[in-house]
Design brief:
mainly alpha; single chain; elongated
Length: 68
């Protein structure tokens, strides 16, 4: 459970550090910057870290629910 706490705090930190996309529902009305803007350097790292931490959190949640 301590490992899950560490992963959850890391996931929250990585999500908060990400740059705001700022599009929201504005992409429906023709704001195509969301689709054509390329992630660079640190943004790409944060995207990958978010994916890895989210998967790790889900796997740990399933394992903890089976064990306990």
């Amino acid at each position: 459970m301590i490992l899950q706490l560490i992963v959850s705090v890391a996931l929250i930190t990585v999500v908060v550090l990400q740059r705001s996309k700022g599009e929201g529902l504005g992409a429906i009305g023709g704001g195509a910057q969301l689709f054509f803007e390329r992630a660079k350097g640190f943004d790409r790292f944060l995207d990958r870290a978010t994916t890895v931490l989210a998967v790790a959190f889900m796997i740990l949640s399933v394992v903890i629910s089976i064990v306990i």
